[in-house]
Design brief:
6-stranded mixed beta sheet; Purple Acid Phosphatase, chain A, domain 2
Amino acid sequence: MKRKKAKKRGFGWIIALIITVLIAGFAGWMAVNASIIHLRRATVYIPDLPGAFEEKTILYASDIDLGGINTPKRAADVFDRLQALQPDILLLGGDYTAPTLMELINQSDATRYASNTGNWRGDFFHYIYDFSAPLGRYMIASPEDRLTGDIRALAEEAGFRLLDSDRAEIVSGGDRLWLVGLGEDISGISKLAGQFRSGDTVVAVTSSPNQFPALMTTEASDSGHWVDLALAGHTHGGQIRVFGRSMLSMDTIEQQFTCGWNRETGVPMLVTSGMGCEGINMRLNTQAEVWLITLTSQPTA
C-alpha cells in the first residue's frame, strides 16, 4: 500500500510540473505577442481632399503605455525603425504611460507612480526628439496623461503641438488640412465643429471612441458634416480576449468600437489597439499596432 501511495504522489508532482510549465509557456507566448508591433497600412478616401495632400501620409500611434518591460528606450527603438516610412505627419494618440499590475494592486503608492511615469514619459520624448515629419508632429493627451506632470510643457520641449480641444492648420502647396484634437468634454465638440465648413478637410483624433457619437451628430457652420476622418485608441482592442470577452473593463461605446475601421456613418473611423498594454504586458487574441494612413481623393476599391 505504501508503494502505491508513493507512486501516486510522484505522479501528482509530474502533473503539477507539466501544468506549471504549460502555464509559464503560455504566459511567455502572450508576452512575446504583446512585444511584436504590427505595422498596418490603410488608404483613406476623402472626396474633398486638397490636391497638395494627395498621397500624404499620417503615422498614427496611440497607447504607448510605458511601464514594466515596455521601457522608454524600447518604445523609442520602434520609432527609430518607423522613421524609414518617412511619414508626412506624426500623430500620437495619448496614454503614454501605464501603471504595472503591482502598481495597480498597490494603489497607495500613487505619488511614486506619478513620479516614475513622468520621468519615463520625459525620457521617451527625449529619445524621439529627432523624429522627422515634414508637415509636423502632433499629440493629444488622455485624462491619465494629465495626472503625471505638465503634458503641455513636455510637448513644447519635445517639439510637438499638443491639441487640447483645439485645431491645427497644416499647409502644403497653398492648400490646407485641419487636424483637431478632441478633449474628454463632449460639450466642446459643437464649438469646434462650428469653426469649419463642410468643404474643409478635417482629421479628428481623440483618446477614446466615446467621443464618436458626438463627433458624428454635430455639424459644420453651414450645416454639413465637418469630419472627414476620425481616429481613436484607448481600448487596446480588448488586450486579452477569451471567448470574445475582454479582461479590460469597457463601456457600451467602447464595446461597439473595440478595434478596427467603422464606416457605417459614411465617415471612416479607426480605433487602434495601440502599441502598449494596461497593467501587464501580455496580449491574447489581439495585436499591438501602429498605422500608416495614406490620404487620397481617388475612390478606393
